[in-house]
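Figure 2 data, in text form.
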Amino acid sequence: MDHLATAAGAAPKYCLSFTAASLRPELATVIAGIYLEQGDWGRTKAVVLGSNALQARSASSAKRLESELRQRLQRLTTPQLELLAKGTRDERTAMAWLAVLKRIQIAADVTQEVLTGKLSSRDPVLRRSDMAAFYEATERDHPELGALAPSSQQKVRSALLQMLREAGLLAGKAGKGGTLGTVQRPLVSPQVQELLEDDDPALLEGFLLSPAARPAKAGKTKAPAKASAKPAPKPAANTAVKAAPKPAAKKTSAARRKTA
């Protein structure tokens, strides 16, 4: 899927405006609820800002928060928005993270290229050197990262780590020796998993789950039965048996000619 894997050729520019808001599942829940009532993103924006639903300290802060969170949520399906608005705390967090994965490509790339690799190598400790290597390699395809001012680069890196922690993919705080925390798989409820698979199984990778490792659904177990049914057409061989008497007919006609 294009938002979870870098396409061949020139990579599209990263969205780097996400520092205006971290994961903020509680605020995303508010916006999702209002959208489900209004049924229109334009009206949702007006209600959110008009009522200061995000409890921002200033109008400018409210606009930045609303804009960033709304652009993430607009990428979710209606069932995903409903779970975000009405699900458990973990389910709301999962949907907020899913919205991030769909909009912020660098977050998806970090998850796939760094966190997944740490788990597969059985070295779950995330280090500053791991992230530094990722940024160095990524800047080759995304020079917009290197073009940022040092302070903006630090904001991007800090915001990414904060979202990983809030989403449950990174546990613990930064420690001595350059460690940033421990990579872990977040809690994913059956309902979240179902929504991910119905949308695109590749989205499971954003939660450090492998689509190939998932057990097949009950309905898919019927496939082997079709294989056993294939030999059934072989009764066609019986037609050859029925056709066998034809030579006998030739013999009787030959016998009549002799008697004649």
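Caption note: The longest strand covers residues 179-183.
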